[in-house]
Design a protein that fits this description.
The chain is 36% helix and 16% strand. The mean pLDDT is 92. α3 links the parallel β4 and β5. The longest helix has 18 residues. It starts with 9 loop residues before the first helix and ends in an 11-residue tail after the last helix.
Length: 148
């Protein structure tokens, strides 16, 4: 949702999501800090859960005010926004613990989107994450080939 979409619009959102077809998966991200610093968060989360809508978990360096860790469905969609800083690797490694915890709670699907301001370095973060994910969870996810 756009950055100016605030909790005062929750009734409109609820009506829209109640009409969303169940056979079409949907993930939703709200970016305004008021969603996470108010009673609206619990109501919002319940609307998503009831309508089987995935709440996108947004991890942006410098925006800890909107980071939440609650799943509304059996799917996790994590949008990791790096800061073109070495700390990105540590932040990514921390997500492996979270994913393992979510898995124990019934996680069935995961989408992990990596990007940052200087996208040229994003493939390096992706390779790091996939290698560690494969080692931790004994998977064989493909590593993207970088053109440089």
């Amino acid at each position: 949702m756009p950055g100016n979409f605030k909790p005062k619009f929750i009734d409109r959102l609820a009506k829209f999501l109640e009409q969303w077809p169940n056979e079409i998966p949907l993930a939703l991200e709200v970016c305004h800090a008021e969603w996470y610093n108010s009673e609206a968060f619990n109501e919002f989360h319940e609307i998503l859960r009831k309508n089987k809508i995935t709440h996108i978990i947004t991890d942006i360096a410098g925006r800890r005010d909107i980071l939440h860790m609650r799943l509304s469905t059996e799917t996790a969609f994590i949008r990791f926004n790096g800061a073109n800083h070495d700390s990105n690797f540590t932040r990514l490694d921390g997500w492996l613990d979270c994913i393992e915890s979510y898995h124990r709670q019934g996680l069935k699907n995961i989408y992990f989107f990596v990007h940052q301001n200087l996208e040229k370095a994003s493939p390096l973060l992706s390779v790091h994450f996939i290698k560690n994910f494969n080692a931790r969870f004994e998977t064989d996810l493909s590593i993207p080939k970088t053109p440089y």
